[in-house]
Amino acid sequence: MELTTFERWKNRFNLEDESARTIITGIATLIATATYQAALSPPGGYWGASSSNPPANSTVATANSSGIAVEKPHQAGKIILSGEDLYWFAGLNTTIFLASIATIWITAIPGLPHTLPVYLLTYLLSGAYLATAITGFPKSDVFGVNIAAGLCITLLLVGSTVPAFLWLNYSMNKLRVRIDAPGRYVHDFLELKDRK
């Protein structure tokens, strides 16, 4: 009897060992939690108050009479980190987050269709991550927002097609087995007859 597509995918990832799957899922969940937390509180934090101070004519920050540094204009609630550092942080953090989500999805494949809530909840968590990341970017970094959003949405769409395909294949195969049930049983009896 030929393996179904679902069974081939299940065997391809070779995740038959329940304890190994549990360990991998646990570690991937911890990584997803840490990277989500890093998106909520990035290095340097967020601006506490808005400032419309015009930038100094030089690249060196100056101090006013009270000793407070004069900074670039910023908006409260936006990430302090900026420029190339922000792009590197957001890119790496998003990539690691999505890799851990993909790992959770892969380890849930053998449990399909019972693990569909796992796929739905991690997909919603990824959407919340994207919203958090986009909300924190400064308005001046439109390029960074577009890159982060594009990367996250693309990887989520690509990553969600595999579980959707497997679930559809599993459902169609289950339906086909129900429809063809009598033929399958006759075939089994014929094999038993040939053994004698």
Describe this entry's structure for a reader.
Residues 19-109 form the PGG domain. This is Alpha-latrotoxin-Lh1a-like. The chain crosses the membrane at residues 86-106, 118-137, 143-168. The structure is a single chain. With 196 residues, the protein is mainly α. It folds into two domains: 5-44 and 80-195; 46-78, no CATH class. Helices cover 67% and strands 0% of the residues. The chain has six helices and no strands. It has helices at 5-12, 18-40, 83-108, 116-136, 142-179, 181-195. The chain is elongated, with a radius of gyration of 26 Å. The two termini are 20 Å apart.
Keywords:
elongated; 196 residues
Short description:
The chain has 196 residues and is mostly helical. It has helices at 5-12, 18-40, 83-108, 116-136, 142-179, 181-195.
Percent helix among the residues?
55-70%
From N to C, what is the helix and strand string?
HHHHHH
Question: Got a strand count?
Answer: 0
Report the principal-axis shape.
elongated
The structural domain count equals 2
Rg over C-alpha atoms, rounded to the nearest angstrom:
26 Å
Backbone structural class? mainly alpha
Unreliable residue runs: 57-70
Domain PGG: 19-109
Protein name: Alpha-latrotoxin-Lh1a-like
Transmembrane segments: 86-106, 118-137, 143-168
Write the layout of secondary structure elements.
Blueprint: H1 5-12, H2 18-40, H3 83-108, H4 116-136, H5 142-179, H6 181-195
Helix pairs in contact: 2-3, 3-4, 3-5, 4-5
